[in-house]
């Protein structure tokens, strides 16, 4: 393993996670001040959130701190670190953009807030769930930044569990709340990958 590429990749991942938290924190604080009028939190919802935290936070954090599981390491290359950096920071850029676009409508869970609006501008003009798109970019970035099969797959698995447990329920809730406006919006957009899915 190219030690310097591995160290650079780990450092970039850590810096990226700090940026992720800095982006998210003000929206969490603001969200507490806005009344929730429909809360669909469930055990399944929590399982999805914890899968994402485990796969895209705890597993790579433990790997960076301990080097475990070293048996799943593969050689680090500067091209992979560069690609991982582009993917990871593209994910962070999209993550911030989606938060800004949602504004007071943002919630960590399946909730409708007071005076909730259907957002279909910015990244939402291309896909219905750009925050999941950002998580997918972060997962692929993690895979290239941290040269370990288990850690790379943990990020993709964590994303997949969150996405497939929540997206259908999220869309159902939006259809119930916004009716034909959401149905028409869904006809003109893809879920997370523009022009594809």
Automatic annotation (TrEMBL):
GO biological process assignments = methylation
Recorded hits in InterPro entries, A to Z, give:
Isoprenylcys_mtase (IPR054851), Phopholipid_MeTrfase (IPR007318)
Which compartments is it annotated to reside in? Endomembrane system
Annotated transmembrane regions: 6-23, 43-64, 76-95, 135-165
Q: Which keywords are on file for this protein? A: Membrane, Methyltransferase, Transferase, Transmembrane, Transmembrane helix
Entries under Pfam families matching the protein = PEMT (PF04191)
Molecular function terms in GO for this entry?
Answer: methyltransferase activity
Q: Which domain of life is it from?
A: Bacteria
Under Gene3D superfamilies, the record lists:
1.20.120.1630
Q: Where does this protein chiefly localize?
A: membrane
Q: How does it sit in the membrane?
A: Multi-pass membrane protein
Cellular component terms, GO, for this chain's entry?
A: endomembrane system
Question: What is the protein's name according to its record?
Answer: Protein-S-isoprenylcysteine O-methyltransferase Ste14
Query: What organism is this sequence from?
Result: Rhizobium wenxiniae
